[in-house]
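Hey, I was hoping to borrow your eyes for a little while. There's a protein on my desk that I can't quite get my head around. The fold is given in discrete form, as structure tokens running alongside the sequence. I'd be grateful if you could look everything over and explain what you see. Here's the protein in full, and shout if anything looks odd to you:
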Amino acid sequence: MSEKRDYYEVLELEKGASKEEIKKAYRKHAKKYHPDVNKASDAEEKFKEVQEAYETLYDDQKRSAYDQYGHAGTSGFSGGFGGTQDFSGADFSNMGDFSDIGSIFDSFFGGAFGREQRSPGNQRGEDLQVRLTLEFEEAVFGKEHVLRYNRRVNCKKCNGSGAKNGTSTETCSQCKGRGRVMRVQRSFLGTIQTAAVCPACRGQGHIIKEKCEECNGNGILEKGEEIKLKIPQGTPDGLVLRFKEKGNAGANGGGYGDLYIQIEVKPHKEFERSGNDIYIERDIDVLTAVLGDTIEIPTVHGNVKVKVKEGTQPDTILKLSGKGAPKLRGSGNGDQYVKLKIIIPKRLNKNQKKLWEEIKSTSKGKGGILDGLFG
């Protein structure tokens, strides 16, 4: 689609929709356009559109930005998600929101309007956030997974200093080691004195005389990482796993940020899940509803045979105890609920119609089973 549609329109929601309503709408539309179910040529594109709308509206920060500025408001949120193959990570540490007057003036004048400046030195690295997409069954029963992503690490050759072994750094003569220089600017408010990053040392407060050959004086290198994950059984959609110090390295040999892995569970073409319980709809014909029968119902644990009582009414719900998802905490499983949808034939041949008329004449007005089905 060349022009993005409104996310609320995509999910058919009102602007003030709750998180529960957003999640319910996502499940409905994701199921409708799932490539395994919908074979239309644009189904995959619409499925991705639904996922994008859900990711934005379900996240409070993204939704707030979207509600204020539309699609332009979410352009600052890094991608880097999607799929289980390549996880390069997404850096969320530098997303400002201009929510106070200081932020507005910082954007015009280069920093710290009316605020004390940080001195250069060790700074903790940024946190990374990646999204891991699981199949429905993988989340239900758990799995082992190798996560691959990129992050910035301290150069081992110079221990993050950026200086060649055997050499040292010297204090920047321009900023005297502060990392910032003062500037006077004229504006519509008059003359304003602001602090700006020192152009000579780029805010580091020191100058490297001889750069490390490995990192070219940066002190930090880009590196691919692998983490072995054991996804627990019963993992819910939206679960966030935290790994300490697995994010980016900080400047000047600072500590590492953390890695956050957000779990996204793909919708299933038949099952829906809420907590530990699983829901499914099953079609049965009129004869099965009237006379009763034994039918086969799929569950995540395999097919089970279920007895349908005679005289079963439309939308009857059957409970299959212990046939839901394993519990994330504790032991045992949730339950599975089956809603029975009775299929009424649209066309009858002459013989079939005659038989139904005979049944109708013998049951109507006498409290027969068909009175409950057809009124």
